[in-house]
Design a protein that fits this description.
Blueprint (H helix, E strand, L loop, with lengths): L1 H5 L9 H11 L11 H14 L4 H6 L5 H11 L8 H9 L6 H8 L9 H16 L10 H11 L6 E4 L6 H12 L8 E4 L4 H12 L6 E2 L3 H4 L9 E6 L29 H11 E12 L8 H12 L3 E6 L12 E7 L8 E6 L5 E4 L2 E3 L2 H17 L3 E2 L3 E5 H6 L6 H4 L9 H35 L3
Helix pairs in contact: 2-8, 3-6, 3-8, 3-11, 9-10, 9-15
């Protein structure tokens, strides 16, 4: 398992310090094989990393408290309800059969300084656990490339009220907090509300945000709130990475929520989520929602009607097509929808960005966006919103409502962004060739592994 963390997943490329630390921590899993699975081990490790920054750590490290009592003491100090961490504490109780002293010792070695912030270690471990567990771990991780991009485009301000109603492990609000911290703003003034389908994800998000100095308000599960069509309060910023194409999201044939545009189909929650997010915004609020590529082109009549109404109402600001292979559990390409609830004059255009060719392969065929990639998308968006500059051939285009109507309200960035006649420079071509070569090697390794497996079976069968 150590190759997962040692490969730099979720860690800035070339940063040897983070790579060494996460590799060191992950090697501890070898001691607990057979007692804990990868998810349970991850729960324990993340709790330890969180506690490393808390006053209760001293009592844990000197043997005065065990891990569960140290966590409970930490929550009690802030008068927080321990029930939020119940799913993680179940893993801790299972780990009691084994000594956690070696893990405690490893985490004790982590220095509490700016060069190696625990927030980044926590994020790197989350990414590695998700990559190792795959689908078994649940799709609770939102790639760093997407969260950093959203944090830049939403331009959060101190004092904003933020909601993530499908928070996974809190990656979106964590990225926003990090952005405010890096800009010198005091993040303690930001109020955050979170919810998720699974109690474990909400618990991870809770830890992730408390590690950054903000205790979020945990709302009821979307199982209860999504069919209602809107939360009880409005927010300045909303982020969401909801499950794609979720079926059976409502237990009624006709959903009786407070739907602003139209009743969403019962067989697919995509447009329930989009309407829920819009209904969550206060005047002037903005949102970023991850959607499957097909959501913008659905031929379902109900979804077409909702999409048309959203566009005509001016709440769809931009659609960004992102590269495939960003997620660990799926290769499906996704889009990032930027939504706004206009407080004044509205723009009769939608910006489309085709970023599908950006990014590079980092580990196990997974792609990510570099800093320059994110800046390029941000620049295209800012130039359009703030200066009225409408296009970058082959990359971005501002499209009028008239043209979108003529296209039956389809929201496919690649269809709207004009093809570029510019030949890629030699550096871009070299990068593309390098990525294709790496992918070819990975496929060759997979093929060789399959061949070895087949040969072994044939040998067993004496064939």
């Amino acid at each position: 398992m150590s190759d997962v963390m040692g490969g730099g997943v979720g860690v800035t490329s070339g940063d040897d310090a983070w790579r060494r630390v996460t590799d060191m921590l992950w090697r501890g899993y070898d001691r607990y094989r057979g007692m804990l699975d990868v998810i349970e081990f991850g729960d324990v490790l993340l709790l330890l990393v969180y506690l490393r920054s808390r006053p209760a750590w001293d009592s844990l490290s000197d043997g005065g408290l065990d891990l569960e009592r140290a966590i409970l003491a930490d929550l009690a100090a802030g008068q927080e309800d321990p029930a939020i961490l119940r799913p993680l504490l179940d893993s801790v109780r299972k780990a009691r059969e084994a000594s956690l002293a070696p893990l405690n010792e490893l985490v004790t070695r982590l220095s509490l300084d700016a060069e190696l912030p625990l927030t980044r270690v926590f994020g790197a471990l989350l990414a590695g656990i998700n990559l190792t567990a795959g689908r078994k771990g649940g799709e609770f991780h939102t790639p760093e490339a997407i969260t950093e991009l959203a944090a830049v485009l939403l331009d959060p301000k101190p004092g904003d009220r933020l909601l993530d109603p499908c928070c996974k492990a809190g990656e979106f609000p964590a990225a926003i907090l990090d952005r405010l911290t890096q800009s010198g703003d005091v993040n303690g003034r930001l109020t955050i509300a979170i919810a998720d389908y699974t109690a474990r994800s909400a618990a991870l998000a809770y830890l992730n945000l408390r590690l950054r100095g903000v205790t979020p308000r945990v709302l009821p599960s979307p199982v209860k709130t999504l069919p209602a069509g809107a939360p009880d309060h409005r927010f300045d910023v909303v982020t969401a990475n909801p499950p794609f194409n979720l079926t059976n999201w409502s237990n009624t044939d006709r959903v009786a929520g407070r739907w602003r545009y139209d009743v969403p189909p019962a067989h697919n929650a995509n447009y329930a989520w989009l309407q829920y997010v819009v209904a969550s915004l206060d005047q002037g609020g903005r949102a970023a929602v991850v959607m499957t590529h097909g959501a913008g082109q659905s031929e379902n009549r109900q979804e077409q009607s909702i999409r048309a109404s959203m566009i005509e109402d001016g709440v769809v600001s931009a659609i960004i097509a992102l590269p495939a292979q960003l997620f660990t559990a799926t290769d499906i390409p996704v889009t990032l929808w930027l939504l706004r609830l206009p407080s004044g004059e509205r723009t009769d255009e939608v910006l489309f960005v085709d970023a599908t060719d950006l990014g590079g392969v980092r580990h196990r065929g997974r792609r990510t966006l570099s800093g320059p990639d994110i800046h390029r998308i941000e620049d295209a968006y800012r130039q359009w919103r703030e200066h009225g500059r409408h296009a970058e051939p082959g990359f971005a285009a501002a499209v009028s409502l008239e043209k979108i109507r003529a296209s039956r309200y389809r929201l496919n960035p690649r269809a709207y962004v004009a093809s570029s006649d510019v030949t890629p420079d030699s550096r871009t071509q070299a990068r593309q060739v390098g990525e294709l070569t790496q992918r070819l090697h990975q496929l060759a390794e997979q093929a060789a592994s399959v061949d070895r497996t087949v040969d072994a079976y044939l040998e067993e069968l004496s064939l």
